[in-house]
Amino acid sequence: MLIFTKRTFLFILFFALCFFIVQYFVYSTIKKANYRIETGVNKIMIGDSQIECAFNDSGFSSIRNFGQSATSFLYSYIKIKVLIEANENIDTIFLGFNIRSLEKEKERVWIYNEDILLGRKLYFPFFGNNELSLFMKNKSFYYASSLILKDYFKILPDLIKGNSLSSQFGSFRPSCRNELEKEMMLLLKKEKLLLTKNNISSTEKLYLDKIINLCKNKGVKLILISTPNFKKCNYFDCHNFDILKSSLASQIKFYDYSDISNEGIYFSDPIHLNNLGSRYFTHILKKEFNLK
Fold it and tell me: Model's pTM, two decimal places?
């Protein structure tokens, strides 16, 4: 019995050692990969699904949209850090920022949620001690980490060829939903969402500040941008959000396009532009910032 127990322990130890060696190799390979953007691109757009479907970067040579659905400021910070380090020519970052950007509920659904973690595995190799401490007690994080080999094999052909993996961080994707009328009816039945000190996410605020400081230290211009919403103040109480915007105004520029149009033909739901809406908004940004 003692011999069996000893052999079992050695087998488990050997398996664990092999697992950690493979994990270390995979993480190191992903960190050292190519994250270069096309020559001539000096501006990038970062944010969640509202950014992802709002700006169509096709046809532009100076800007790329790295919007990605359900992306918190934590993951945006990692993304920005990697892209800046790999692309010294980046001088401007447009960061999506809206009334729900700092909502505490985002911590549960956009940071610690298992489905989100499973889709963010390629970010894990870039986590520092601060990020790892956040997930130390999160079982879903360890589960997602154990499956990173699956993602590794998907990108392996690009790794072998030395191709850029920057597209893994997001891209423009048009919203094909047609839920505006249905979701507006649901929203009108709810109480207004009020941003208060009690429901502001400390984690999201921390990583917004980290993004601001990172851009400042790297000499990169950071611009906060709110994409159009459909009749936003029917559901959102904007008072405290406006106070928050004012407090940030001394540090960074903020462009609020949230109420530039209430034309239903531009929206796939109350907070996302459809294909026609993205063309409309892309044209506005092109003129506003002289995008090439």
Answer: 0.90
